[in-house]
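Re: your question about Multiple-sugar transport system permease YteP

S., sorry for the slow reply, the queue was backed up all week. Below is exactly what I fed in.
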Amino acid sequence: MVKTSQTEQLPAQATSVRARKPGTLMKRIIQDKYLLLLLLPGLAYFIIFKYIPMWGVLLAFKNYQPFLGFFQSEWVGMDNFKQFFGDPIFFRLMKNTLLLGLYDMIFFFPAPIILALLLNEVRIAFYKRFIQTLIYIPHFISMVIVASITYLMLTTEGGIINQMLGEAIGRKIEFLTSEDWFRPLIITQSLWKEMGWGTIIFLAALAGVDQEQYEAAIVDGANRLRQLWHITLPAIRGTIIVLLILRMGNFLDRGFEQVLLMSNALNRSVAEVFDTYVYTIGITQGAFSYSTAVGLFKSVIGIVLVLGSNYLAKRAGHSGIF
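Result:
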């Protein structure tokens, strides 16, 4: 083994020292000034609308009184959290939110993947673009419109589906007021509205698959199903895992607007989730500190789910998100 002499190590050390000089950093900043200027709007957006508002989480540890102001309001520590965890409604909110999140992961998350795989098998470009356009359109429809369409189709007073059911089975079903039908309606609305839009990322990932792999598989006698299993799915596995990890961060976010529009006095026991509860307590009843504590709890759970799923992905041999 040839040992490197100290004289040979000195130039490398000197180069490393020169690379850390402030002048080199300023030179790079000046050299890339236009790229950094392009970065400023996005950076300003996150600072103003994401990081500065995080100061407001301190309300969760105060008994905020508007006439006293933020700094003069009494510091109560964990009292708001203790009150929330001790309230019987906590378990109902947790159950409703977790069930909707579980249904979302089971039915909604795989749907764009399956649809993207099906679209990828369409070989006629015109039909493929036409189908993509049709399934993208619902994404741009307001949730208010979606809820209105749902009401017009399912109401027992003239709804087309209930009219058909009345003629077919002789009775109508209370879709809009039934506790049993609330969660299926929420998932169905989400599927119709966002499933097509969710295929964009997966179709982009599928576009990057090397076509020579398919040609080699055909030569080896692999049918379309085996090509899908051994080539297509492994190629987009990383994308699926990254999106799954990011989805876990929103596991407790159940779509405030959608749930609020579809809930009523008859299904509220299964419809009320953390988001609607924060709105009811914080905005309509003025319990700002208490509602902030509820929202902070939900955010902490989201962070834990992201870190946990990322850790499991890394343990399974995947890259994760960080």
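The longest helix spans residues 179-207. The mean pLDDT is 87.

Happy to talk it through on Thursday.
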